[in-house]
Amino acid sequence: MFRMRTALAIAVIAVVASAALGAGHDYDRDLRGSVKIDGSSTVYPITEAVAEEFAKVCPRVRVTVGISGTGGGMKRFTVGETDISDASRPIKEKERKIAAENGIEFIEIPVAYDGISIVVNKSNTWVDQLSVDDLRKIFLDGSPVTTWRDVRADWPNVPISIYAPGTDSGTFDYFKDVVAGKTGAIRSDMSVSEDDNVLVRGVAGDRGGIGFFGCAYYFENKDKLRAIPIVNPETRRAVAPTPETIENGRYAPFSRPLFIYVSRKSAERPEVQALVKFYFEYGPELAEEVGYVRLPEIISLRAMVNFNDRMTGTQFLTMDGEKIHGPLLKIYRKLPVSVALGQ
């Protein structure tokens, strides 16, 4: 019965979404304008792929995609400098408040699943798995750990070098929430960069290196790096990041959704509407091509309807500004605007 209800719901939403966005793949080659996008380096490969393919059907629309990090992108988006913001985490309460102060309404759209991959150098054969407690030993501010032997006595006395995204990164924010919580802090003696390719090169060239970033960068560089299985806090079993374990949530606590945030004002412009429509139609396939995990169809369809209805606000904050945690399928729904606003 549950499967039948789910199938019916998907069918109904699909009909609505199809009518809303228009069936087929017709785009106006004479459409002109520009679309400014900035934000997450994790979401960048998806959005850049979408922009490149979109240019083939709407060659006169100029789409620029920056990679200043989720936080950096939000700083620009919430003051009206960009049309779309790539984000590897949901919008924060302080960002929502700044947007409201500046009259920026936004539409929240999940675009893919990601699994933050904790990676080490290929020559590191001693680390077979890591728990969140192990990660705390390595990454927390004030930790006395400087070598791998400090983490476990039977590991070699090799100095640990950490390569991490910058503090404007949504990946950094998500990792910090898991490892350090609300009150803890991540150590500062790390090599940081908003460019994940720099982190890849750093770990690949350092025998004692460890780093973290979105799964697409790991999948693309499997020949240079080794991803460490992470102990799922609930099952107590070590799980490696794969498309299957990320989608089904077994790769916990580092599976997460990725987003784009679209300015409601910008969404009224034909060129922005066309790009978002293209994102819905081709984004899932392109997300898989660049190494991320396609969302369940029901989520994509809900997002289409929400965009067509210009449903503004976030579904990941309570009315008091507290974060809402849980599976994407339970959180991201088609809600009345008064609820979805979270204001």
Characterization of the model:
- The chain has 14 helices and twelve strands.
- It is α/β, with parallel strands linked by helices.
- The chain folds into two domains: 2-113 and 257-340, Periplasmic binding protein-like II (D-Maltodextrin-Binding Protein, domain 2, 3-Layer(aba) Sandwich), CATH 3.40.190; 117-247, D-Maltodextrin-Binding Protein, domain 2 (3-Layer(aba) Sandwich).
- The strands form three sheets. The protein has a five-stranded mixed β-sheet with strand order 2-1-3-12-4.
- Helix 1 runs parallel beside helix 12 (297-308) and helix 2 (44-57) packs across helix 11 (270-289).
- Mean pLDDT is 91; it is low at 1-24 and 336-343.
CATH H-level superfamily title of the largest domain: Periplasmic binding protein-like II
**In order across it, which strands form the biggest sheet?**
2-1-3-12-4
Q: Approximately how much helix is present in the residues? A: 25-40%
Q: Structural class, judged by helices and strands?
A: alpha/beta
Report the biggest beta sheet as strand number plus sense, adding barrel if it closes. Answer: 5 strands, mixed
The proportion of residues in beta strands is 15-25%
Assign the CATH topology of the largest domain: D-Maltodextrin-Binding Protein, domain 2
**Distance from first to last alpha carbon:** 36 Å
| Architecture (CATH level 2) name of the largest domain | 3-Layer(aba) Sandwich
The 3D shape can be described as: globular
Reading the helices and strands in chain order gives HEHEHEHEEHHEHEHEHEEEHEHHHH
Instruction: Compute the number of strand runs.
Output: 12
| Rg on CA atoms, Å | 20 Å
Tally of contiguous helical segments: 14
Low-confidence stretches: 1-24, 336-343
